[in-house]
Sequence to fold (405 residues):
Amino acid sequence: MKDIFDGIRSSSNIFKNKEVLRPSYVPDTLPHREKQINELASILAPALRGETPSNVFIYGKTGTGKTAVAKFIGKQLVAKGKELQVNTNFVYINCEIVDTQYRVLQNIANHFIKSWESRVPFTGWPTDEVYNKLINAIEKTKGVTVIVLDEVDKLKGDEVLYNLSRLNYDLEKARTSIIGISNDLKFTEFLDPRVKSSLGEENLVFPPYSADELCDILGERAKIAFKEGVLEENVIPLCAALAAQEHGDARRALDLLRVSAEIADRLGEEKVTEKHVRLAENKIELDRVTEIVRTLPIQTKLVLMAAVIGTERQDNLTTGELYIIYKDLCKLAGINVLTQRRVADLISELDMLGIINARLISKGRYGRTREIEVSCPYKIKELLEKDDSLPKLREYKPKLQSKLL
DNA sequence: AGTCCACAGGAAGGGCAGGCGA
DNA sequence: TCGCCTGCCCTTCCTGTGGACT
Fold:
């Protein structure tokens, strides 16, 4: 066993420090976010005078640097606070993971409670007791605490936001400020108006990066991540251009660069080239599809399977034709049949996920319908065939073959 | 110009599971 | 532990729609 790893472990031809290409890495400089950094810094600056900073909402699509900027400012704020001997605290919470009122309050409280015995347990306490514990913990700091709620739209219910926005009413010696981060621009529309006005005192919008800006970002990271001269000239511009095509997503650009280099490294090559970027693009797309298909509910998988079978048998598969195949598959699998209305929604969901492409067309006298195509049909077919919860594709013998062909 | 098809997609509400507070 | 609330999945019912056909 030792020998296997000895071969693989031997040092990389390409990487010097791969970690800087991971999304979790917070760099020392954030190119093309100077304006947002300055704005956020000036909003939070009162914290260093012991005053209450305004609450902020940060919007922007994935990979536009929202989290990086927030963490960056948090780090700087705490450091500056230490220097000036003003107590400033920074709590970061990812609401995709910590998504209930109890867990959010528990996490913030435990940030300040160092001894294990007095920490708030995962479950068991009434929420108001956790809230009181949190108030006491923050009060003891006698300083300003900045709480970042990343992916705040993933929180279940807006009661947490309401309670957090009222923290300052219950505090005497300490102050808090909330930074909400979301990629959903419409998020606040559905909030309780009290929460909306309290939390949205300041708003920051992070625009997508352009291809040139992504080039700079990748260039900065590449200097630390790679050995000298291993990237062919056009690799970074290509990664940047591909990511900018989607929606200026820096995370995607970094992923592309990292995976391209990993592929080159695994192939034992000396240089990362355009060919590796193309392979990486393909791999990332297939990984995404695999992950989505694997986690689909059984009914949606059956709809997808019907789409695969249908498109294999004929071009221009319509909703009605898909539904006929779907019903047969349900009977084969011994699963209850959903209504066409529901199946139409499942088709829309698959369309939104980019697994299928459903185009609305009109056939005039013969009605209006959606024409369905499957993206990467071979990969999806392979994934569905491996799925034990589904009937085997070869078992499907349509009674309606004549109708379909 | 009017008809008609095969749906799309909105609205309302039922059933169920899970979370929460008393 | 129990009742209430909420979110999710789903059904039923309904109106709307683009364009080929008459």
